[in-house]
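TODO from last week: model Tyr recombinase domain-containing protein.
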Amino acid sequence: MYLKNSISDTGLDTIKTFVPKFIKTRIVLRSYKNQDGKSMLYLHATSDGDRWRHPLDIYVYPKNWLKEKSRVSKNAKQYRDINLMLDNIDSQVTEIRTTFKLMSKPLTLEDFKNEMLYGVPRINFISYIEYRLKTMSLAPGTLRRYESIVTKLKTWNPNLIFHQIDHNFPDKYRKYCKKKGNKKSTIEGNCRFIKDMLIMADKDRIFYPLEIKDFKVQRYESSREYLLPEEMARLFKYYNNEFILSSHKLALGYFLISCVTGLRLSEVKLLKRNKLDETMVQLTAPKTGKKTTVYQTKEMKNLLSSCEDLCEIWLHENTINKYLKVIAKTCKIDKVVSMHVGRHTFSMAYLRAGGDLLRLKTILKHSKVDTTMIYVHQLEEEQAANTDTIGSLYH
């Protein structure tokens, strides 16, 4: 619906544009000209005697302004770009009106103003997630993980709108992930993130057909890759080999630091070589914001003395992981070795040596003991497997 309405500001030349229910809007051309002879366009909104004017930061020559069409003429330079911007403003106004109508919520002037200035994407679910991620304070690793889920959603359905998220949505997405070869733990991890985003959308009063209580997410106690003592012995031997490539030595050095401290790579990167002579060093973990203490040990001293570039020259995580895969193959370790395997290896070695569960939870900075218990269960499985050799003691 379009309306023509006059306004009291005689310094503004009015035009017609889309008018949402309860809110009357117009794009107006201010009569004031800047030193270039151009006038700025404003979005003018009124409701129940209240008025709000929003400068659009779009400047046009008055002679090129077509009042009836609400657009600039072809005589204007970059007229296509300017008209496209105006199309987008019309679309934004239409989207706000449609969204509030679907929510059965009256559109007040204050609501309209907030949506125009700070508008939350309310139609496209993927756009909403991207918007929310920008407002959240996340560790780099967590952000990368969430962005990979967004990329997967885009590949599956780039135009996924909220109204498509119904009771069939969870099963459809799980089938897609399974077809891609994702593990169950990965799929449920994806679904947990998506559910969290939908809960946020619900708080933003965005409607979608799915009842969030019906979106069930299973928790999987995933096994974690770690290295055994004999495999670690091979890596230490290779690290101290005089013929090892300098790039391999540096990457392996950071991995071994994780193996003897339990630190994440983001925490390892906070270590300063000139500070590691001290008895202990305190760090703030980037992922959790929690304080952690690194104690100087014999293993740390040996690692540092064997490589003068360690904790001086840094490599990207992808580069380290690439080298670690080559190193594992060289050392005849048939496992997918990455930086995070170092943290798992430390945890298993700590428990194997009789370390306390709650103390390990503190070292790893886990928020829940259930997360730490995964290592206990894996150690139990490891020890149960070793009982198979008892029979050979009597034969």
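Done. The chain has 14 helices and ten strands.
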